[in-house]
Amino acid sequence: MFRTLAVLAALALIVPGFPTVAGQSEKPGPVDASVTRFLEQHRYSWRDLNVSEADGQALYDTVLKGGYKRALEIGTSTGHSGIWIAWALSKTGGKLVTIDIDEDRYREALANFKAAGVAPWVDARLGDAHDLVPRLDGPFDFVFIDADKEWYTNYAKAVLPKLAVGGALTAHNVSPSGRRQMTGDFYEWIKAQPNLETSFSAGVMVSRKTK
Question: Domains of the chain, with CATH numbers?
Answer without folding.
Answer: 50-209 (3.40.50.150)
